[in-house]
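Input/output pair, single chain:
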Amino acid sequence: MKILSLSFILLVLIIFSCKENSEFKVVEEINCNAEEVNIEKGGFKSDKKFIDSFFTNSKQQTAEFAFSGKYSMKLDKNNQYGFAYTLYNVKANDHYRITVWRMSKSGKGALVISHKDSKLFYEVQKNAKLDNDPKWGQMDLDIIIPSQVDGENLRVYCWNPDTINPVYFDDLKIQYLNKPKEN
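Output:
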């Protein structure tokens, strides 16, 4: 009976958490598909025209594998971090959804959002959801900014802690979400 009650509570929580997420709408979005690089800044170009809209470590662009297009980013033991992007002056209760596609032979490789002092704020996603493609899995973080980092900058990035196998990342998307206004 306890298992049935716990299962029902879990089901209700899942339904309500899914409903709440669907109430949010995308206010702003930035994407990086690893296709174009900015040589001067050493980063990948985003789909935005703003001066600071680029993602780091374009030297890791590779045509070995790609989820979409011709290129992805390869992280290995010599270059463990990439696709880094700074979110400036975040506000408490801001809502961000961050997704990226990962191909990893070892199952390692992570999507991270962190303050420069990781004790203040650090969220990581190490698991990828495999969909129709057996090689590529999507990773996502759904974050509500806590008050302790109000007004601070946060860094979004991909990380490969594996010192043996490379990990490939593609199609990073950062969405700023907001609840629709009540009528």
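The first strand starts at residue 25 and ends at 32. The domain at 26-178 is CATH 2.60.120.260 (Jelly Rolls).
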